[in-house]
Amino acid sequence: MSVKKVPLRKCTGCGEMRNKKEMLRVIKTPEETIILDTTGKKNGRGAYICNSQECFAKARKTKALERSLKAAIPEDIYDELEKELRSLDTE
Q1: How far apart, in whole angstroms, are the C-alpha atoms of residue 71 and residue 57?
Q2: Residue 23's CB: how many other CB atoms inside 10 A?
């Protein structure tokens, strides 16, 4: 019986490698909009971030998400992503 490989992704905030299912995916769609992908299956360039406010704040401060997605992210999009992240934390 073979062991199934677990996909790992690197957090853009803290830089840790973690299981893909434990992380949130932020994508830049082909229409150039930036959204939080809760399913992990939407089309677009993706960047992964830990499910924590600290990692999001660090990625925002260092502009790591912008580098990963190869796009400038306006402050209102960051605020919207932060709200979505908080709503996921409370669930």
Answers
A1: 18
A2: 21
C-alpha dihedral sign at 26, 38, 78, 22: negative
Superfamily of domain 8-90: YlxR-like (3.30.1230.10)
Enumerate the domain spans of the chain.
8-90
Cα–Cα dist 49/26, whole Å: 8
Give percent of the chain with pLDDT exceeding 70. Answer: 97
> What is d(CA 42, CA 87) in angstroms, rounded to the nearest whole number?
20
Task: Specify whether the CB–CB gap between 23 and 9 falls below 8 A.
Answer: yes
Q: What is the mean pLDDT of residues 21-36?
A: 90
- Residue 61 has which token pair? 């401060």
Instruction: Mark residue 81 as left, alpha or beta (left: phi above 0; alpha: psi -120 to 50; beta: remaining).
Output: alpha
